[in-house]
Amino acid sequence: MIRSEKEYERAVNRLEEEQKMIERQRAHFIELGHTGEELERLMQPMKSFNNQLKEEVEAYDGMKRGNLGALYDLTNIGRWLIGVRIYLGLSQKEFAEALGVSEAQVSRDETNEYHGITVEKANRILETFNVRIKAEIDEPISRPKKNNDPALFAQ
Q1: pLDDT digits (tens, 9 = 90+) for 57-103
Q2: What CATH number has the domain bearing residue 111?
């Protein structure tokens, strides 16, 4: 996940370099006599990496425009909170200052995508930046599925 303008610029430059390398590699494989399915199979790893990088660049672009996507469950709240910071145009340092924590703490939290974040901490971030989450029910509520894990609700 791209978390800063500097990382974004590096990713965009790398995308351009990768595209040129893919073209050179394709020409080299053709020169060696590879064609059709064999050529595509040889090119797949490079194309796959390129597509992944392209998706990350597009995701960062979207976050900068405020397209954070819907938050369907709390397992993705970390990426969503990082998106909030990016949308607000704040560096990790500025974000940390506004929250009254160290830049190192924000960096650690973002590296871990806020894994294990408490409700209180998430709420503090949202309140600090005047961000609200709206929850709604898409379908009528039905009986919950049984979960045989007693630790799930243990305190």
Answers
A1: 999 999 999 999 888 888 889 999 999 999 999 999 999 999 999 99
A2: 1.10.260
Residue with tokens 């998430």: 122
Same domain, 60 and 9: yes
Token reading at 138: 């898409």
Closest CA to 64 of 87, 90, 84: 87
Contact yes or no for 1/113 (Cβ under 8 A): yes
Residue 138: which residues within 8 A CB-CB, separation 6 or more?
none
Q: Would you give the distance in Å from CA 99 to the centre of its chain?
A: 22
Per the structure, the complete domain to which residue 16 belongs is given by 5-64
Does residue 133 form part of some domain?
Answer: no
